[in-house]
Amino acid sequence: MTEYKTPMMKQYMSIKEKYPDCLLFFRMGDFYELFLNDAEIGSKILDITLTSRGKGKDGKIPMCGVPYHSIDSYLPKIINEGYKAAICEQLSDASESKEIVERDVVRIITPGTVVDEKMLDNKTNNYVLSLNIEKSKKGFVIAYADISTGIFIFRSFRNNPKLIHESVANEIKRINPNEIILNNELYSDYELIRNLKNTITSNITRIEKSNETEKKPKESIKSHFNIKSLEIFNIDESNESELLAINDLLNYLKYTQKSKIYHINKIQKENSQDYMYIDSNTINSLEIFHSNQIGNWKNKKNGLIDIIDKTITSMGGRLLKNWTLQPLINIKNINERLNAISEFKKNHEIREQFINLLSKISDMERILSKIGTGTANTRDLKGLANSINYSLEIINHLETEKISTDAIFMNKNELDQNITNVKKVLKIVDENIVDDPPVSIRDGGYIKPNINQELD
C-alpha cells in the first residue's frame, strides 16, 4: 500500500481502510471528493470529470467531486449500479481547527438500506435480507427488514438437505430483496452463491464480524429491544439459526445507519397458519407483479398489482402488495376484511371523505424511519404532524359511522391509549414549528417567533 505524506491523504486512507467495499465520499469544504480508484469508478458512473490532485508530496492523485448540497441527486446512480457509498463528514469547524479537520463516516448507503424517499419506489418495500443455514442443512432461517419503514420479519424453514440451496434461492426470490448479507462461511459456499446468482438479481454483501456482532446473539437482540425474553416475538431462544440470522441483520442495519435504529421496535414471525403460502414460481405464473408476455420491456408493468392498485397513499400501496402475497385462510379474518370493504362500497359519501383525507397523508412509515435514523428534517416533522391529524380524523369518522374496524386496527385498545400522548406531541410541534419550514435545518428559520429569546 502506498504511503502518503500529507495529513489529509493520511486521514483519507485511514478512513478508507475501514470501508474498503464502499465508495468513500470525503467531505472537503463545499464538496464531497472521491480519490484514487473510487474516483475512477465514480467519475464513470456519475458522468463527471476525472481530474487529479496536484503533484505535491503525494504525487498525482486521481480525484473527482460533487457539491455537498446536491449529493442526494448523485447517490441513486451509485446505488443503482450495485455499489455502496460511505458518507464522510467534517466533524469539526475548519476555522477553529489548528490541525487537520476531524472527519468520520456518518452513514453508509447500500442497495438494501436506503432511507431517502427520492431513491425508493414509494409503493414497494426495500428489503435487505439475512440468511443462516443449519450445519445439518435440514433447515434455514431468513430474516429481512425494510429500514425505510421499520418492518422486520423472520421465518424458519425445514427442508431436504439435498435441496437446501435450491430451497433458499426460491424463498429469497419470493421476498425479492435488494440486498442479501452473508457471513464468511455462506459467502464462500460456491453452490449457494451460484444458485442465488442464477435465480435472483439481488446484491450480495459479505459481512465481517466485529466486537458488536461477537456478542451472544440472544443477549444482543434483547439489549436492542430492551426486553427480558424473546418469546414476545415468538423467537425460539434455543434455535441458534434464528438468533444468528436476526442478530446479523440488526447489527448490519446499525452499522450502515450509524445509529440505534429506534424505529425497529418489533420483530414479526411469518406464520403459515394465518396465510396461504405462495412460492416464487406461483407468483411468476400468476403474473402478480409483472407480465410474462413476450415483448413487454423488462416485464415491469402490466401485472395484477398494476391493474388492481388504486391506493391513494404509498403505505396503502405497500400494504396491498403484502396482502396479495399473503392471502388470508382464516374465515373469521376474511369476513372481517370483507365487512369493512362492504361498508365503504355501499356508502359513497364516506368513501369520498376518506379518499380526500388519505390524499393529504404523507408516507408516515418512511418519515418515522428517517427520524429513527437521524436523517429527518423539520419539514418531515411538520408533514408527520399534519398526517397524524388527518389520521385522527379518519379514526373519528370510523367510530361515528360505526364502520367495522376489526380488520383495520389489529390493536384498537392500544391505539386509544396512545392517542392522548400523540396529541401532546402534536401540540408541541404546532406551537413551536413554523407552518412552512425550510428543507435544511442548517438554513434556520423553522422555530416560530417568541419561543426562545436567544433564537429570536
TrEMBL record:
Residue intervals of the DNA mismatch repair protein MutS connector domain: 126-264
Highest taxon, organism lineage: Bacteria
Biological processes per GO annotation: mismatch repair
Residue span, DNA mismatch repair protein MutS-like N-terminal domain: 6-117
Ranges of residues in domain DNA mismatch repair protein MutS core: 281-448
Family annotation (Pfam families): MutS_I (PF01624), MutS_II (PF05188), MutS_III (PF05192)
Keywords: ATP-binding, DNA damage, DNA repair, DNA-binding, Nucleotide-binding
UniProt GO molecular function: ATP binding; ATP-dependent DNA damage sensor activity; mismatched DNA binding
PANTHER family reported for this sequence: DNA MISMATCH REPAIR PROTEIN MSH1, MITOCHONDRIAL, DNA MISMATCH REPAIR PROTEIN MUTS FAMILY MEMBER
Protein family per UniProt: Belongs to the DNA mismatch repair MutS family.
Protein name (record): DNA mismatch repair protein MutS
Organism: candidate division WWE3 bacterium CG_4_9_14_3_um_filter_34_6
